[in-house]
Write a structure and sequence with these properties.
By secondary structure, the protein is an alpha/beta fold. It is about 50% helix and about 5% strand. It contains 23 helices and 5 strands. The structure holds flavin-adenine dinucleotide.
């Protein structure tokens, strides 16, 4: 090991879910220190093996890093090892003066990893400067000023970094065992990178967004009219503040008011949900409302079969199946269909949300623990503070996919059916099966439950639980803690 005297002095900027240069405070702070900077990204086996993640996420990260590299003369140092061992190695080779990163509101494993990295750095007397991510405050014990702070963060000046003048130190880690398949693009998914993010946003404000409010609930139209910024925000190709400020520039456009107001609320929700998870991260494992602790779910062997049918998009309910298949193939689904999938799992199949939460995370390209867990629990009806919504997938299909375009695209075996049967294929008579060439149980699955029965049962159960005193007590605590 070299003596400290001979080691080169450097700062480290640890990139996590902030894969961009603009509006990046850690990079600006490290740059100010005028030492060579190691721009570090770590592919951690702990996360690569985590069931919340799948190849699509690592491909998106790889694309983002490649795009960042294209702006640099010396590249980002990419490691393939656990974070602590990567830092230990860097401390052996360099005289590290400081580590800079954004705070991460992540899963329990990244929280523990951060604690271990913090202990290692502290032991070596190296300061770790963690910048706030968006408007999410750590710690946040009082939400009364939160809205005002959100606004002032979003309106503050963006941080500019000049990549040309960065003094970068490149570390050559061994990454030969990382899968090469991440380098192959997948044209059915959104591609990672800040330039991509800006293009998609520009296109939204140029034309797509005008119909945002009108199309937001429709599985097909929303693919065009929603911003589609979620993966770029989740992986930090763009900051929420950058998006907010672009939105503000368009705020008085004639004919856009409703759409832009709706989008603005959602940018606010983004941080509101992440803040909830930041303040109560045990909701990765437990119902946020402890009153529901013993809420019974199915646990028999047929529930495992039904869970698999849900995961694979073969439940026999066309909109549920189309949504899941679309998600598996493209990584994207609009909000309402996501909510419907969770409702189907937890209400109609009566399966514990914890058995489905990782699957959806692994197929959402925009998986963000801070939004995913609070949303999942809300749709599963276990918060005690939100309206209980038991979605009827047939009604949703008739209302939001009225011409059947979305279902026909993803359940092609049903494409020949007229709409009445497309939405309710269990009504096919033997004669119609012959006419349309669709045999239930052969070409398309027989439905695994009858939602008329499950609706009644679940509704009775959920409302009875909602009335329990322990659920109500917990609801008060949640409101006090998380709602201003
Ligand atoms: C069960 C469930 C799980 C979800 N998991 C995630 C997740 O892991 N990651 C994720 O980014 N979103 C998640 N959402 C929220 C929402 O569905 C997506 O953010 C949205 O569909 C993304 O599409 P968009 O970028 O076109 O959104 P737009 O409607 O254009 O909204 C712009 C941005 O606002 C934020 N936003 C929009 N809707 C919500 C919302 N309801 N709650 C919080 N933030 C919102 C997102 O950052 C989004 O990119 C989940 C919703 C449900 C019901």
């Amino acid at each position: 090991m070299k003596a400290n005297m001979q080691k080169k002095r450097v700062n480290i900027v640890w990139l996590k879910r902030d894969l961009r240069f603009s509006d990046h405070e850690p990079l600006a702070l490290a740059d100010k220190a005028e030492l060579p900077i190691i721009l570090l990204y770590i592919f951690e086996p702990m996360l690569l093996d985590d069931p919340h993640y799948s190849e699509r996420h690592w491909r998106f990260v790889t694309e983002s890093l490649m795009e960042m590299n294209a702006q640099l003369t010396r590249k980002i140092s990419v490691a393939h090892a656990e974070a602590c061992s990567t830092f230990k190695y860097l401390l052996e080779v360099y005289k590290v003066e400081g580590v800079y990163s954004h705070q991460e509101t992540g899963l329990a494993n990244t929280f523990t990893r951060d604690r271990n990295v913090a202990a290692l750095l502290k032991e070596n007397r190296i300061p770790w400067h963690e910048s706030q991510t968006g408007a999410v405050i750590r710690p946040c014990n009082d939400r009364s000023e939160w809205d005002a702070r959100w606004k002032s963060h979003m309106r503050a000046q963006l941080i500019h970094n000049n990549t040309e003048r960065l003094n970068i130190e490149l570390v050559d880690f061994d990454t030969s065992s990382l899968p090469r398949t991440w380098l192959l693009s997948d044209s059915s998914m959104q591609k990672g990178g800040s330039c991509q993010a800006l293009l998609v946003l520009e296109d939204f404000f140029d034309k797509r967004g005008k119909a945002y409010q009108k199309s937001i609930s429709k599985p097909q139209e929303s693919r065009i009219s929603c911003s589609r910024m979620s993966p770029y925000l989740a992986w930090g190709n763009i900051s929420l503040r950058q998006m907010y400020q672009q939105l503000s520039q368009h705020s008085s456009r004639p004919g856009w008011r409703r759409s832009l107001t709706a989008l603005l609320s959602r940018l606010h929700w983004h941080c509101h949900f992440v803040q909830k998870f930041e303040s109560e991260s045990s909701m990765q494992f437990k119902h946020i409302n402890r009153g529901y602790q013993s809420l019974p779910y199915r646990d028999d062997s047929s529930s495992a079969k039904d869970l698999n049918a849900w995961k694979e998009g073969v439940t026999g309910y066309p909109l549920v199946d189309a949504s899941m298949r679309c998600l598996i193939k493209t990584g994207y689904l609009n909000f309402r269909m996501r909510a419907m999938l969770v409702s189907f799992l937890t209400h109609h199949l009566q399966i514990d949300w914890r058995r489905g939460v990782e699957h959806l995370a692994s197929v959402f390209l925009d998986f963000d623990p801070g939004i995913h867990y609070p949303q999942f629990q809300m749709q599963a009806g276990v918060t005690g503070i939100n309206t209980i919504r038991i979605y009827n997938p047939t009604k949703q299909a008739k209302e939001h996919d009225s011409d059947g375009e979305f279902i026909r695209a993803w359940c092609q075996e049903l494409a020949e059916l007229p709409n009445t049967l497309l939405f309710e294929p269990w009504l096919l008579t033997p004669m119609e099966e012959l006419m349309y060439g669709v045999t239930l149980g052969v070409d398309y699955p027989v439905r695994i439950v009858d939602i008329k029965d499950t609706y009644k049962e679940t509704s009775k159960r959920l409302w009875a639980w909602r009335d329990r005193s322990d659920v109500k007590r917990e609801a008060e605590r949640i409101l006090e803690r998380h709602v201003r």
